[in-house]
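S.,

As promised, the D-mannose run. Input:
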Amino acid sequence: MNDIRMYETMRWFGPHDATGLKDIRQAGCKGVVTALHEIPVGDAWTVEEIKKRKSLIEAEGMTWTVVESLPVSEDIKRQAGAYKTHIENYKKSLENLSACGLKVITYNFMPVLDWVRTDISYTMPTGAKALYFERLAFVAFDVFMLKRPDAVNDYTSVEIKQAEQWLAASSGQIKQQVFQNALLGLPGTMGRFTPEEVLAALKGYHEINAEKLRKHLIYFLQEIIPVAEKAGLKMAIHPDDPPYPVLGLPRIVSSEKDLNDILETVPSQANGLCYCTGSLGVRADNDLIGIIKRFGEHIHFLHLRNIRKDDTGNFYESDHLDGDADMFGIVRELLLLMKRRNISLPMRPDHGHQMLDDLRKTTYPGYSAIGRLKALAELRGLQHGLVKTL
Ligand code: DNO
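Predicted complex:
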């Protein structure tokens, strides 16, 4: 068993995705990562709908390997409104997914916003476009454009002054872009929140600090993990992106300590992680290789991506083999882990640059076809070489 490899997959957002199943197959993937994005968050997924989606994938010679995501409603995160019904629906969805042969379920526990970027077409020296988070642009958005009440308390006076200068120096077009990008909705949609919607959603978290949110996550896990266990499913929580509080909202899946708390409080093989190098890697205190060493038994899904950060809080999504994360060391450690566990973990190249023909297409930010194809090919090559050395 010396050459266990990662199980290569790509994310597909469903039948309307510009990157189709045939493209994913041509990229050499055996598996597809997807979700029933059209079902309202909080509702149960029926066997019928799951089977329909599954058969589309199987008709192209691939498997539906991972569910990403089975989303957790804001009511569950806030423990308000219909949260009890939503948890029952979540359990039902898990049972139904298991009945259809699904095994790994990814989700996150980030309040309101999933990921946040200020620029979705940051030009790389090659001309390809990347996703970028510019700290001052975000502070300017929060304090001066969104005008979130109390936002000034979350930044230093120096940052606020600099954000004011950023604002004065930026063209109307740049400001407009930052405003729109920061309000982008979930990955896989082109929809965005209105400022009023975000401000209203933030109000719903007024009384919820990190400690409270953590309690809500633990409650949720205590409810659903036994169901997942029984159904033979592995839950994989996705880390926060970026891994720190945003817009005054608490975030509790950001650091190694957070991961440890989650795994320790609800001990079960079914309670696991989506190991996302791009999200965790934004924090300099996250030891990416150490996390594999210490939590490897609970890693059920891999998102491989690289970023380059500076010490003022900016980061952009760099080439997969060329960023702050030591991708060589990471893939090597993952291969050792899989060998130890005698398991092939599903992996997807997370995001990719918009490049070549995709520059002329409208693609989901981060999810154009060619950039991901390139990323996958690079990761595959790295793995191919490394396997021979282990
Ligand atoms: C971004 C993704 C995340 C991820 C969810 C998982 O591209 O990695 O949006 O799908 O956070 O629930």
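The two ends are 11 Å apart (CA to CA). The chain has a mean pLDDT of 96.

- D.
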